[in-house]
Amino acid sequence: MKGLEEKINDNEWFLYNLERPATLRDRITFYFHTRFNRRPYKSIRCISNKGGTLPKLFLYNGLVNSKYNFFTFVPLVLYSQFRVFINLFYLSMCLTQLVPILRVESPIVHLFPLSLVVAVCMLKEGIEDYKRHVRDREHNTQKFSVYQKDDYVDVSAERLKLGQLITLKQGQRVPADLLLLKTSDPNGASFVRTDQLDGETDWKLKRAVATTQAMSTVKEILSLYSVATVEEPKDDFYNFTGKICFYHTTNSVDQSNQLDDENSVNSETNSKPDPGTKNTVDSTPELNNSDNTNVDTKLDTVVDTKVDTKLDTKLDTVVDTKVDKSRSKSFRKKTSIDVESKLESKRIVESLNVDNIVWMNSIVASGTIHGLTIYIGKDARACLNSKRAKMKYGLFEKELNRLFIVLILIMLVMCVMMLCPNGFMSMWYVTFLKYLLLFSTVVPLSLRISLEIAKYVYNRAIVLDNKIPQTMPRTTMIPEELGRINYLLTDKTGTLTQNVISLEKLYITRGYYTNEDVNIIKDKITNIPNTYASSGNSVSSSSGNTVNSVLCEGSELVIINNNKLNDNLENRLYLSLLSLAVCHNVRPISESETASDPVDQPNNSENLVNLQINPSDQLHNMDSNTGSDNTPKLDSIADSLVDSIMDSVMEEVLESDMDFQGSSPDEIALVKFANLCNVKLVERDDYKMILMVNGIPLNLRILFMIPFSSETKRMGIIVEDECGRKHFFLKGAEVVVIPMLLPRGSVWLSEECDNLARMGLRTLVFAYRAISDSEYDNFVQKYNEANLSLYDRVKKIRKVTGTLEHGMLLVGLTGVRDKLQRNVGSTLESLKNAGIKIWMLTGDKIDTAKCVAISCGMIQKNNSIFQISVDKLKQLTPESGGAPLVVGSGPPIPEMIEFISNFNTDENDDFDAIGLYNVYLNSVVQVITYELNTFIMGPVNKTLLILDSFVINIAVNNCFLGDNAEYNTTFKTLRRLFVKSLLLANNVLFCRCTPQMKADIVKLLKSENKIVCSIGDGDNDVPMISEANVGIGIVGKEGLQASLSSDYSLVEFSHIKRLLLWHGRNSYKRSSTMSNFLIHRGVIISVMQAIFSTIYYFMPIAFFQGWLLVGFTSYYNMIPIFCLVLDEEICEEDVMLFPELYVELKKGRELNIKTFLIWIWISIFQGAILMIGAIILFENSLVSLISIGCTSLFLLEILNLVSELHHWHRLTIIGLVCTCIVYFYSLLVFRNNFDMEFIARKSFFWKVLAISMLGWLPIYVIKYLTKILKPPQYIKLIVT
Known about the structure:
Layout: H1 4-7, H2 11-19, H3 24-33, E1 45-48, E2 53-54, H4 73-82, H5 85-96, H6 107-140, E3 143-148, E4 151-156, E5 165-168, E6 177-183, E7 189-193, E8 204-207, H7 210-213, H8 218-223, E9 226-230, E10 242-248, H9 250-255, E11 265-266, H10 267-271, E12 292-293, H11 295-299, H12 309-315, H13 329-332, H14 339-343, E13 346-352, E14 357-358, E15 363-364, E16 369-375, H15 381-384, H16 395-419, H17 428-438, H18 446-463, E17 472-473, E18 487-490, E19 497-508, E20 511-514, H19 518-524, H20 528-533, E21 538-540, E22 546-548, H21 569-582, E23 587-590, H22 591-595, H23 615-618, H24 639-655, E24 658-661, H25 665-676, E25 679-684, E26 688-693, E27 696-706, E28 714-720, E29 726-732, H26 734-737, H27 749-758, E30 762-771, H28 773-787, H29 793-801, E31 809-820, H30 824-833, E32 837-841, H31 846-855, E33 864-868, H32 870-874, H33 884-887, H34 893-902, H35 911-936, E34 943-948, H36 949-956, H37 965-984, E35 987-991, H38 995-1007, E36 1012-1016, H39 1022-1027, E37 1030-1034, H40 1041-1045, E38 1048-1050, H41 1055-1095, H42 1107-1113, ...
Helix pairs in contact: 4-6, 5-6, 6-18, 6-42, 16-17, 16-41, 18-41, 21-25, 28-29, 30-41, 34-35, 35-37, 36-38, 41-46, 42-43, 43-47, 43-48, 46-47, 46-50, 47-50
């Protein structure tokens, strides 16, 4: 809406228009801006929690995959049918029969085949679209809980509106883009899974808005009027800018009952980010200083950080202001909304970022969340990243169209040749049109309908195949393409893998353990805590057990002197398990906690009965200065009560079934392994964690976390035990951790990392060092200074954290595996042998994808890896041999890449900045070109090429700004080299791909005339699936969008082997043979017609009169030809045993020009033999000529069919018998067209047999001899 940015500052106008009912003008404006809802409304938008929107939006949140509705079905189907030139041509020919001077036969005779074709196509389209409507309905009628009128109401997904408050529980799909208002977690955190959107397996940590999280119930949230102002719809999952404004009135506070002290909000909880989030490194590492604050006080503060400057300039309004009451009263009378009360209220603004937003089709992974709908329908991020499935036409259809053009030329040449003897006299065009109708059988009208029926049979065979159960074809357009795939582009997560992570090996100095050695590990560390209790500082618990701080000073576990560990296997093993259980961002959750929803439960922390719920409140307090006045102290409780509570707590913790939630499945797997070894994580929040070590609790305070990132490749955590001793645990990739380690005890690390990598395992190195109080205080001081820096903040922070990352003790090495789908390795091996190149496209990290590529067999052990990525480019220097002529005197490559990555090409209009951007980009392009040339010169057949999104974007899209000939030439050179490299490589791994990048890669291959098959299971794979020649969707655990948008739906990746090698082969071979037969039949009829007209002085007289022509173009030969649809050239066992047979199919020899010309020659030869033989042997009447000619043609076609069959099916025999019965019955029905007296003689049968054998036998002998002298490949393989 133009001017919204300016008008929004007028509070009175803004509030009135936000809540007023929509008008007809609003609807017209909406449809004008969205081109009748075909594109997003490009405007910022304001959404209130009462359902008001500005601008007024009319969006539908349902999924629409269907193509027709009740009104558009008939016209759109007819339009699609007559867009085909053949159908339009026959329609024109039929219309000519309405003109008496052009009439050759009755118009009904020619209209009937065309009507039959169109009717069958309409029936097929109607059935397919009805199925789409059913699938859409199942998706759109899913019920979700919406809070309306002080109660929850179940609302279907398609009826969701903007500004509604939705409640979702663990495992539910998110039906719209939501602003997270409240979660069941006290800290406002919730994990979501987005692998269906961006392909990343790591769970995303989302944060609720601090103001609404502080409220105890959903009713209180809705009682406080709020307006969310968000950016215009975009397709970016990783960035978001907005703000939410709360109109804080006295009445709203009174209605919320002003939360009691026990429900107060910890100000640090709402302001300090989670140590596990990506921006934790920007927060100040302070110890817990909890100040409980009342909700009213919280609402009077303004939380406004990290707001996008541009949006803030547009939308920022004055906080805590009142509007002049001298405004026009007439304006206020226009609305019944209580605008004045809101104008006089305080306005609290809180900034929003991507951490506050949960995208559509994400899966809630933890707890219960309450969210406000801010984008629905086509405005949602998931919809903007997906493309509507377009009609696909395969290479087989294109080849047929080319043959149709040749057939039309043949038909025109025949018409001209028949006109030449009599010359182009007056009214020659009438004769030409008549011949055009007589020779129209050259272009077989029934071919289209025959192929449509055949494709339906192919799909039914796929559905009924018990070896690939639940496989569902969703189109009948492209089954032949399954037999000619050149490239298979596959997703990783959920497609090749199960996304189930398991720890396979744990290495320590003196050996390694597998996941089957859990009992051995438990035995070795059974007495560890009790052993250390005697020498370490310990505190006796109320239950009599020794609660030992196993990391306290004086403990034998960690010796302070130079951070050396006591050289003892049990010690090493124990510390490695502690590292697994401490260094992570995982939170435990019990089944009872998962099942219950405490969001709307008021807190009664004053009740002593609740003491046993939280073990951390009963164990030793970690900071005596922390805690609110309303929290009971253990010291003030009777010892007997404490003993009973502690015993019940410990028993409940140990016996309860714990589950774990975290942003990384790898971390969850490591924590679960430690849990199995009796080092259990029982409680974790932002500030503390509690471990149970062999049943003895260990309390640790979280002081600081260094989050993991793809650049640093490591994660660290600083904890403090009960004795005040500080410990630094770190884990990361070996390339970054090895330089931080002490030399002694780590010499074996590199070799073992290589061994695990060759096994396809992802490795993590764990390290440890103790930190003194003075060292930690110095670190905190320097970190605070770096965190407040306005320039190079990230670099300074990393420099400060680097002061801790040295002299570390090697703890252990872990190898984890993402479990593959069943039979993935053997399937990929068979597809490789079939000549199909396999590429992996994933949104995941390079290291993760590389391990999966090795595990599934994409790369063999003797193959090498060539990587071109941001990390690799940043490491290139002239000394390392990386493009020495490019760097020159300019800035280092990392600085160039950083500048290019951060440059906003859409909004930056600074001429100098654009020039510098182009110069840097040109240098980076030359570096990439150099690397690609290096790859090409190497052994490309034995190398896995790895590319990331940065390189893909530069190579595929012209990122240069402006029109510069030199830069354009540079880009074209890079693109050509990029395509050449891809085509030469056998295996390519694309990492960090966005959904659009995946589609761009498919387009790139299709532009090189390659047939591409894409397979995936998530929403992020839909563009790739839709763009490919053949799109295959795996039925995911959470989402069906990929399956619904695909051409074929599978439940397992391994089913693709049978789908391509068996069903693809049969579909292509059968359709090709049937097409050749139908073309052959039409040409024979035309040749016989031409010879007949020739003996009658080139007059356009029909030889096949009346319904005879309809019979020979439809029901006489239809059933026999359909016997080819059931034929099997090779048995199933041989096809699956020899995937090399698939290579021959990709050459396309079944329907090329050479094969076509051979069939044309056969048709001319047999047509001439039939007509000339009939002329010689008929008995002086036209009906006898028709009798012997038509019967000979019928018998010849049966013989041709029998000679082409490789496998006799019972339906084939039934079809042949039924066809013979139909033909001989038609002799009686159409007795006026046949000489029944001549047919009754014995001479008729031997004449028909002689003519038919004379036309068939020479062709059969030639084919038989050719098969012996030059056998096809399948015979060679099977015999061998």
